[in-house]
Input
Amino acid sequence: MTQGSIARAPTLLDGAPWIRIFPVRTPTLPPATHTNVYLIGDKRLCAIDPASPYEDEQAALDHAIAELARAGERVAEIVLTHHHVDHVSGAAHLAERLGVGIAAHAETAARLRGRVAVTRLIEGGELLDFGPGGLRALHTPGHAPGHLCFVDERSRAVVAGDMVASVGTIIVEPDDGGDMAVYLASLARLRQEEASALLPAHGPPIADARARIDFYIAHRLEREARVLAALSVEPRAISALLPAAYPDVAPAIYPLAARSLLAHLLKLERDGRARRDGDAWALA
Output
């Protein structure tokens, strides 16, 4: 381990000790400060989202994985939920250190080309041979085009990536492949899984999965209604729409809110309820 790094052990998920949670510090959006790495399996493990670019955090994860290897449990593959920097920044380091491949959706692989070498593609519905019942991949685009969740078939816990969070919020950014309508559809798809728990990338496990997903859907639809109410027949810039559409957000957060506001406007445009006039927006 590097000087100053601290040895620490993964946390076991209650009722599913083959699911281990290892938060690492990452350059993620506040108030979140860490991304959860999930080490899943019995003897043969996958590492989902080794995310940190920081040497001390990579060393801490290396140490935890080495301790598991000494107990006869070895990481056989690295798996990515999507392409964002706070999910993939330690993947190349760990792959080289362990001599294993990296698996992800084709859309994720395309966006990582030249940065992280994805060696195997995962499709929605595929069953990965990790854990006592396997991990079933769910393609849940919207936050990112190649976003995958993973259902642990034995416990029914779902590794949810950035579909939901228990710390912070989820940004849907059109300039990076985000799509609000697709994200809402993916939330509805995730709700159908009737998960025993959601295992987000940011924050602790979420026990009441359905309630959290229902909250996210309701929140997005409420925000959409605020965006629609902020529009008028006269075109207005996004900066002028922000105070009415995001009255609960401090002005310091407006640059982040503007990304999701654009995603809502694009959805309303497709729904025939908003129109663009250059960089401004009005009622259709």
Notes: Residues 17 and 32 are 25 Å apart (CA to CA). The chain has a mean pLDDT of 96. The domain at 231-283 is CATH 1.10.10 (Arc Repressor Mutant, subunit A).
